[in-house]
Amino acid sequence: MILKADQWKDYSCLDAGNGEKLEQWKGVILRRPDPQAIWPMHENKQWKNADAIYHRSNKGGGHWEYKNKLPDNWQVRYKELTFNIKPMGFKHTGLFPEQAVNWDYIISKISQRTKKNQEVKVLNLFAYTGGATVAALSAGASVCHVDSSQGMVNWAKENVSSSGLRERPVRFLVDDVVKFVNREIRRNNKYDMIIMDPPSYGRGKNGEVWNIEKDINNLLCLCSKILSDNPISVIINTYTGGLSGTIIENVAKLAFSENSPKKIFHNEIGLRQKNSEFVLPCGITTICEF
Description:
Elements: E1 2-4, E2 11-17, E3 20-25, E4 28-33, E5 52-56, E6 62-66, E7 74-78, E8 81-85, H1 100-114, E9 121-125, H2 131-138, E10 142-147, H3 150-162, E11 170-174, H4 177-187, E12 193-196, E13 201-203, E14 209-211, H5 212-223, E15 233-238, H6 245-255, E16 263-272, E17 279-289
Parallel strand pairs: 1-16, 4-5, 9-10, 9-12, 10-11, 12-15
Antiparallel strand pairs: 2-3, 3-4, 5-6, 7-8, 13-14, 15-17, 16-17
Helix pairs in contact: 1-2, 5-6
């Protein structure tokens, strides 16, 4: 099953093909590589209208070619949430729009409790620029936001502020995720919802090496020890090619067996191409519900 982030007004996937995608971010058109778009490119004149094009380098990385002058940064809104956008050195913009399907899920699940004046504590790991943090705060939860990059944490703070949520209870931490969770176990801190977006590979702030295939099992086992007595869910987003949702389901079933999950499932998430029946796959979300 593929869930489509199709409720955007400030964002749209205009087209995709030949290893690229064409997107509109509130009036700004960007052309970026996308390894999932292996089908032939459509005859779409909009490809020539891109304000900026990202070119990969044979040596790794790449650069932006600006056809028109862009603002240093600008904002897009998703429902009541506001995010700050800017082209980054490695093709990214600071936001993954397909994650909107998970923001809706997060808001719905948290709201079921906060509307009853029940406290909800959320832990967001590999939290990047804080899309899920903003969503959880907007629903009334308190959030602990952890990422190894100071720059990404600063950006997340800007997103929280832009969404009018800076008075909400949130902690921002620049830390290695595994080391942080181990400390939370020793402190006996518990969370009702845990969200994570683990990369394929990464490094912590002190050079710690993360490899999802080697380390995801240990991390989920550690997370099982900091779930509250009445948890809501654990949400695991993966973008690693070759690592299917079934694999993460299997790992999660073992890691959270003593927490008695009611169900564990996964969905592919994606973006519908504008004026087309095509959907661009953008990763997998595995969810454990309790």
